[in-house]
Amino acid sequence: MKEYISQYEKWKKSEYVPMNLKSELNAIASDDRAIEERFSAQMNFGTAGLRAVMQAGTAYMNVITVAHTAKALCALIERSDAREKGVVIGYDSRNNSQLFAKTMARVLAFNNIKTYIFDELRPTPVLSFAVRELKCIAGINITASHNPKQYNGIKVYWEDGAQISPEQAKVVSAEMEKTDMLSVEMCDFETAVNDGRITILESDFDEKYIEAVLKETVDTSIIPETAEKLSVVYTPLNGAGYRLVPKVLKRAGVKKLTVVDSQSKPDGEFPTTPKPNPEYQQVFEEGIPLAERENAELIIATDPDADRVGVMVFDRSINDYVCLTGNQVGALLIDYIIASYRERDCMPPDPYVVKTIVTSELATKICEKNGVRIYNVLTGFKYIGEVIKKSEQTGKGSFILGFEESYGYLKGTYARDKDGVVASLLICEMAAYYMKKNMTLYDALTDLYKRYGYYTEKTCEKYFEGMDGAEIMEQKMDTLRKKTPAALNGEKIAAVRDYLKGTITDIATGKSFSTGLPESNVLYYETEKGNVAVVRPSGTEPKIKFYYMIHADSIEESKRICSQIRRETEALFD
Prior knowledge:
By secondary structure, the chain is an alpha/beta fold. The chain is built from 19 helices and 23 strands. The strands form four sheets. Strands 16, 17, 18, 19, 20, 21, 22 and 23 form an eight-stranded antiparallel β-sheet that branches. The protein is globular.
């Protein structure tokens, strides 16, 4: 009997598998391909945790695979001899998120690991904050971030509040390989609450987090001074930001705040959008009529776990709302924070910014001109967290902003992950600052380009789904490593960074240098004119991601170059 068929039969017979999953399995009894897809592999556990479609099978998210992951995490915690330090668990608005969170809590408590769990959904940054505030050894968040509704996932954090390291992820993966998925024991949830093994965190804990966020206001006077004029529309996209974002904005002084009613309540079906991702303009469609009615300066959207933020701002030249990219918002925030500190003569000592290697070089230009250090790290906010940690350990540097192109921002060291709540606050404050100058945020962006040159950045993706998707992606990356394209847009390739090999190669001389960063499956091409194309497989979805960072003397020319380089780069994967 084939191994995947054997696993399928075990699941159908096991007393651990609930009836709803068995019904799913019975429905595919005559579909060998479906059985193979569900049982030929396990989910891959990496530094970003797990993320998969919710359905029965060893390769998908369900109570069995969630419990199995929890058991493997127990081994990591036991290695650190840290049962008493405890683990805190959070979750978002997705279907089954609370069920999966409680399942993990039951496994941890059974293994005598002190466990905290929130009484209802919370933004991901609250979980990161809670790990640090409660001095836990680890944190677990049940979320699939901005993925479509059929997905869910598990993010794991360590005691500094950042996601776990590659070495720790390998320990968890090894434990999952040797642990029987259908024999994970767990205790009764209510019994564990009553005997103190599980502690439920209620709304009073939120106050500590809110205080930490409000301390990151750059200038506390700006929003109150414009409160009678500043109008903001907010949508949580039926996610975890629904309570805390409005609460923080109101406490900061925003009086004219309108929440999009159809997207205001938690709902894992995400009924108004197929992809609850604030990168996409479609998610703002429900909010635009409200913004027009309220004469709003901007529309803010947070994703289901409220760690990412998207923004639409009013462009007076076309009398309409336009989306800003994550790169544009990050550059605006850096410029605003530096300007505000300088104007009030309160710049912290030795300020620094952290961004990822696929994030706009406009940020670098702004920092260089203003004497602010900037660090480049691999994709993933945990790497930004590592720079913050090192700075604290050495006592050198003042962190003023960390951001990545995928709409994630953090100001402050209270957390070690991107925070849509503090980002929403800063964006409103920034809008108020420019309102006092009779400028919109779009006007501010135009001014930024006039000062530093015109930048166009674009992120694209190509999916490779199915059982052989991962293998195809690996083959495509291997092929590209063996044959570097000679040019893009007619511009010779000047340097190639291969982060898997850890090298930066000068094409003209053939000399190689170290990237100075950890290994990662990323290829980075820089042309002789300084334009950039980056290729990397996603760590959470079956797709290749492409990043383009272009600059030119006009916005039209930068867009034209970006389109051409995109066509040539993505053709390499056809």
